[in-house]
Amino acid sequence: MGTCERIQDTAESLLKLDPDPIPRVRILADLLERSDTDRSLIEAKRDVLQSRWLQVLAEEQRKNGSWGRFHSADSSATYRIPTTEVAVDRIVRWGLPRGHTIVVRTVSYLVDLLSSPERWPDAREKNDRWDVGQELFVAATLAELEPGHQLLDAMCAKWARIAAVAFSSGRYDPDAECDAHRRLTGAMSMRGTYLVIRNRYALQLLSCREGLLNDEIERALLGWLWTHPEGVGYLTVPVSRSFSQLRGTNGQRWLDSHRLLSRFESWSKRAAHLAEEVWALSDSYGFWDFGSQFDCIKLSENHRKPIHRTIDHTIYMLLLIDRLCSFSRLRRSGLPDLDDDCTVSASTLD
Description:
Blueprint: H1 3-15, H2 21-31, H3 39-48, H4 52-60, H5 84-93, H6 101-115, H7 130-145, H8 153-166, H9 174-184, H10 200-206, H11 215-227, H12 249-261, H13 267-270, H14 274-279, H15 306-332
């Protein structure tokens, strides 16, 4: 049985376990690729609208479309959704449709905040790079919901230019990146901070549209991230490490790192070995259950019953393998293999 057939077979087996609405939609829409007119998918999407997780999102969304704080949680608050960033992450994971009221209000808020940065709800840092970071946080979050929004045009172009300068030699050059920021953002103190180009927000922005980076720059960026001891900034897990070596929140961060990097075409070649490694961790039924210590974002209503935990863990693993399978299909359709040459010519910066 081929990889793609094995994914479908396992996904069909998951449906027989009577999953909750959100995991059912992920199985039907993302793994089995049922059409929007499929009755079972229509019913699952309808049930999602009544799910516990959607009720939490709706109850805690403020009138302005936010969830209070944007980037840094208020430690004294007791909200289940601590920031707008977290809310958008849940919207994406839970597959909330773009036309839903929650999503429409969220996009409106993000657009307003990007246009009027003085309305930023969190405390500001007192350094010359804070305005750059604040703008990036909002733009990258908007890109998760509306990647084609015109307000992102200039931001995408600016960060693509920074990436091109930082990797103009074929390798990451911190001096070149700092120089790019001095010229393009006005920030003078970027070196070694959370805003260097490997941070998750810059990567979200750079991967939200096709063609922002040319092939050489992208391969150089992915090569650097693959060998970096902390991987993607803010997630801080080595992406080249085997999943079996990870515990606790590191497992979710590893998956999130690869979910993000898989938006770049050159990821598939570097990650090709992951499919077999991940399959090897499944049980005799073709499912995965890493126990309660694997702190993943829940898709099912709760994990008190181990079967729901198994469903969620299996979906996360199948989604990763399915992404690799998608790239494999593209290659068989004529997409050329990527080589390891990351040399960038000066003409790419013009």
